[in-house]
Amino acid sequence: MAIKNSNWDKKHYQEIYDFMIATLSSVPWCSNVKCPFEWAKSKLPLITMSIEKEDYEAAQATKDAIKNFLNRFLDDENKITNEATLKLPTAGQHLREKLS
After folding, report:
1. In the predicted structure, residue 4 carries a pLDDT above the cut 60
2. Count of structural domains within the chain
3. Range of the domain at 64
4. pLDDT at 8 over 90
5. Which end of the chain has fewer CB atoms surrounding its CB within 10 Å, N or C?
6. What pTM was computed for the model?
7. CB atoms within 10 A of CB 91
8. What 3-state DSSP class applies to 96?
9. What is the pLDDT of residues 49-64, one digit of tens each?
10. Is 4 a domain residue?
11. How far is CA 23 from CA 19, 26, 42, 78, in A?
């Protein structure tokens, strides 16, 4: 994805991207989530939260990290492309799930 905004903070994007790749690659030993796709799905609310805080670099970096992490497990014909759409949970939905 080409970024055209001159205010785009490339350093912040890269820091968040690197952090998310490290987070996605390090499943805690005590986690009951063993499937990489389920582990990555658990990070989707971070994109929503970043957008709500108008931290678009963090939202894009998180999306890119999740996509690249998942693509490690997919063969070439099933890789997630840049044109793919993520269905993000809303903050309200995320809170309702936590409370139920």
Report:
1. no
2. 1
3. 11-22+33-99
4. no
5. C
6. 0.76
7. 13
8. helix
9. 999 899 999 999 999 9
10. no
11. 6, 5, 11, 23
Q: Which residues of 53-84 are buried (b: 16+ CB within 10 A; e: fewer)?
A: eebbbbbbbbbbbbbebbeeeeeeeeeeeeee
**Highest mean pLDDT out of 20-24, 74-78, 79-83, 92-96:** 20-24
What is residue 94's three-state secondary structure? helix
Q: Is residue 28 situated within a structural domain?
A: no
Burial class (CB in 10 A: 0-12, 13-18, 19+), 52: exposed
For residue range 34-51, what is the model confidence (pLDDT) as tens digits?
A: 788 888 888 988 998 999
Q: What is the CA radius of gyration of the chain?
A: 14
Give domain status of residue 66, yes or no: yes
